[in-house]
């Protein structure tokens, strides 16, 4: 199987040894964009790590990040996953369909843990993608504890700040409300 990656027309080409940059026009989907890109236009390889972490948490939980709101505590998907991991209840995040069909739930909890490391608020705290691969492939590696999500913990703060951001900046973004996955052989 050959994986294919699409940039949806938003990709930027890095030059030579460049590993980060700035943009004046923020384009992307809220919930997947790294905070430094969404609010400052700064992008780097760690921006992609953040997006990867969100996708991992969505796959494991079966919930969309940009529409998730926990009923009890107004947590975002990131905040809810972090709270459950901290309480030793990460199994509760796993989608029922995945839980019923998975033979080794400890591997799924490891994915949650790595996903949370990828969505650290500070980009310097996020692992590189090669570190992510290493952590996922080597179950004997002890994973560092992720920091509290901070800004991304509570949906009320996120909604308020997104509203003020979109009112003050000329930005373009899309909001997907449905995902369809079809697995076909090549």
From TrEMBL:
Record domain Protein kinase: where: 1-143
Molecular function via GO: ATP binding; protein kinase activity
Pfam short name (any one): Pkinase
InterPro entries noted in UniProt: Kinase-like_dom_sf, Prot_kinase_dom
PANTHER family in the record: INTERLEUKIN-1 RECEPTOR-ASSOCIATED KINASE 4, PROMASTIGOTE SURFACE ANTIGEN PROTEIN PSA
Designated name of the protein: Protein kinase domain-containing protein
The species this protein was found in: Cannabis sativa (Hemp)
């Amino acid at each position: 199987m050959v994986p294919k990656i699409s940039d949806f027309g938003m990709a930027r080409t890095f030059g030579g040894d460049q590993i980060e940059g700035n943009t004046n026009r923020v384009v992307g989907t809220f919930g997947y964009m790294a905070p430094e890109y969404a609010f400052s236009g700064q992008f780097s390889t760690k921006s992609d790590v953040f997006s990867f972490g969100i996708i991992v948490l969505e796959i494991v939980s079966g919930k969309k990040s940009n529409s998730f709101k926990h009923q009890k505590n107004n947590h975002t998907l990131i905040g809810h996953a972090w709270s459950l991991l901290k309480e030793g209840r990460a199994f509760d995040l796993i989608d029922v369909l995945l839980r019923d069909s998975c033979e080794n739930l400890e591997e799924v909890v490891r994915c949650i843990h790595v996903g949370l490391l990828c969505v650290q608020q500070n980009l310097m705290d996020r692992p590189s993608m090669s570190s992510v691969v290493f952590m996922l492939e080597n179950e004997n590696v002890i994973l560092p504890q992720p920091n509290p999500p901070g800004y991304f913990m509570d949906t009320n703060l996120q909604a308020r700040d997104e509203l003020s951001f979109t009112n003050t900046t000329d930005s373009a973004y899309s909001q997907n409300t449905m995902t369809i996955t079809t697995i076909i052989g090549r």
